[in-house]
Amino acid sequence: MKIESTDINFRNETINGVLYLPESKYPVPLVVHLNGMPGLEPEKEGERFAQELNCIGIAYYAFDYTGVRNSTGLFEYYYSQENINTIISYLVHHPKILPTKIALLGESFGGAMALCHAARDNRIQCLAIRSPVYDTKKIPQLKIFDGLSLMWKLNKQMRFPKVNLKSFFENQSSHYNPDKLVEQLNCPIRMITGTKDEILDAEEIEKWFKKLPVDLDKGLQIIENADHNFSNKVHFQQMKNYVIDFFKQRLIN
Fold it and tell me: I want to staple 217 with a disulfide (CB 3.0 to 4.6 A). Which of 156, 161, 188, 240 is the partner?
């Protein structure tokens, strides 16, 4: 595994990320990872997905949105969507990346971002989403929203403008809501969630999955007793195998 740290310019800010490259002939396909809020630091992603993807000849890029940890600025949902476009536009010109084989992997809120972006960007060949936020307007309505916002701000992991966060979130997330874009998706997708997800109901995700176009290459797996973060090691490995097998099928085979 070869590791490249990147600082990508976005407006007046900098997006901090890490590119994990396989020891293989270049150029290679790429999976771009989209964190939840705030998710794991890019530097710690090597053991989660990067290593196994690298073993089958796929590069992996993880980053923090602006306003998160070592990326500069403040977090704003619609700017985070623009972050994705900026990153892909940067990486398709990387000499070791195959620009015609770009995929997204979105987790939790990153699942919402992944679908919203893929519905608009024909550079994306496929995407996989885990425990996805399928309707962003539901998040501020959660009873645990205040607790979530405190967790996001813990140790200044995420930095927000000084506004009412619930109202701010309701307004911004309405601009990029996967529930409004699900019928526009035209690339292969795999989705995975658990029956014990404490934030997002698996049955509701299954209903939302049915809104995808009928003729789309799609798949949904529901893991019994898995929680939102797939914190059980067995569940996490099941989820990882499902995702990696899909990327191998779409990007390598």
Answer: 188
Sheet arrangement for strand 59-63: 2-10, 13-21, 59-63, 28-34, 97-107, 124-130, 189-194, 218-223
CA atoms within 13 A on the CB side of 52: 14
Q: Which residues contact 142 (CB under 8 A, 6 or more apart)?
A: 148, 199
What would the two tokens of residue 238 be?
């099941």
Query: Which two tokens mark 74?
Result: 């403040």
* pTM (two decimals): 0.95
Query: Domains along the chain?
Result: 2-252 (3.40.50.1820)
* Separation between Cα atoms, residue 132 and residue 235, nearest integer Å: 16
pLDDT tens per residue, range 75-133: 999 899 999 999 999 999 999 999 999 999 999 999 999 999 999 999 999 999 999 99
